[in-house]
Specification:
30% of the residues lie in helices and 33% in strands. The protein has 93 residues and is α+β, with helices and mostly antiparallel strands.
Length: 93
């Protein structure tokens, strides 16, 4: 499960009325600072959603910032993903 909290007293105030696909409102907390509201959102189907998001990034080659090459073949990748999954790449990159 993934959750995030937003303070609606700032730039997110206009977004509070928008419905966000895949997110569920799990609680609302009123603060004392000028009656600011905080919303806690839960990302539904987190595992499949995050997997799908990473697949889309890979397939669309959005934000690729490194190319791996071996035996005449190459593969575009994301440094942050390689570093998160491998201590070798984290040290190298």
């Amino acid at each position: 499960m993934w959750a995030a909290c937003f303070d609606t007293s700032g730039p997110y105030q206009q977004r509070q009325k928008q419905k966000i696909k895949g997110l569920t409102l799990c609680s609302v907390v009123r603060g004392t600072m000028a009656d600011a509201q905080h919303f806690c959102l839960r990302w539904n189907n987190y595992q499949s959603s995050i997997t799908s998001a990473f697949e889309n990034l890979r397939d669309d080659e959005d934000f690729v910032d490194v190319t791996l090459a071996c035996d005449g073949r190459s593969l575009k990748a994301h440094r942050v993903v390689l570093s998160a999954c491998s201590p070798y790449f984290r040290e190298l990159l």
